[in-house]
Amino acid sequence: MKGSTLKKKKKRLVFRSVMLAVMVGLIVFALISNNNSDKSVVAEGEEPPDFKLKKFGTEETVSLSDYEGQGVMINFWATYCEPCKDEMPYMEELYEDYKKQGVEILAINLDSTDLVVQRFLDRYGLSFPILHDKDGQVMDEYNVGQLPSTLFINPEGEVEEQVVGPLTLDRLEGYLNEITPES
Questions:
Q1: Is the dihedral of CA 36, 37, 39, 40 positive or negative?
Q2: Handedness of CA 76, 73, 132, 121 (dihedral sign)
Q3: DSSP bridge pairs for 163
Q4: 110, 125, 171, 48 alpha-carbon torsion, rounded to 10°
Q5: Secondary structure, 3-state, 115-175
Q6: What are the pLDDT digits (tens) for 115-139?
Q7: Cys-Cys with 120: which of 33, 79, 93, 158 at CB 3.0–4.6 Å?
Q8: Per-residue pLDDT reduced to its tens digit, 4-18
């Protein structure tokens, strides 16, 4: 009987130790995740780093520097991101009008599978440039953590505004107005 009680105590000790280790691991993960979410994408007023990415489905490359003197919206997104799906129609709705006014929308996709992205594009009929950051290099350079993340760059080449999270139609239009070049 005594041996049985000792075995039970050992099992309880092992179980409790494992549970404690799991809880400590979760706390460490939460602290690291919270710390990473506080990092800004690129600070407002800074000039964002240039990049060169392929336009999805083509061999054409696009660089941020190609749009010097224009307002540029850079949107980091992925097909698995539900808020990204919600804001894409807003971007499409405003794209043509703002393109005529000197504002370009560049949507940087972070999916690794071309087929998934192509299905998404076919479904939503997007006309603005979709750039593919398959290896996440630009995402890392811009320190993007949460999706969607959007930067609004003024014609002087500085970050006017950064938004982490989804945009409504009104907010999107307001930010695009802020980066529209003066005639």
A1: positive
A2: positive
A3: 150
A4: 40
A5: HHHHHHHHHHCCCCCEEECCCCHHHHHCCCCCCCEEEEECCCCCEEEEEECCCCHHHHHHH
A6: 889 999 889 899 999 999 988 899 9
A7: 79
A8: 787 888 888 888 887
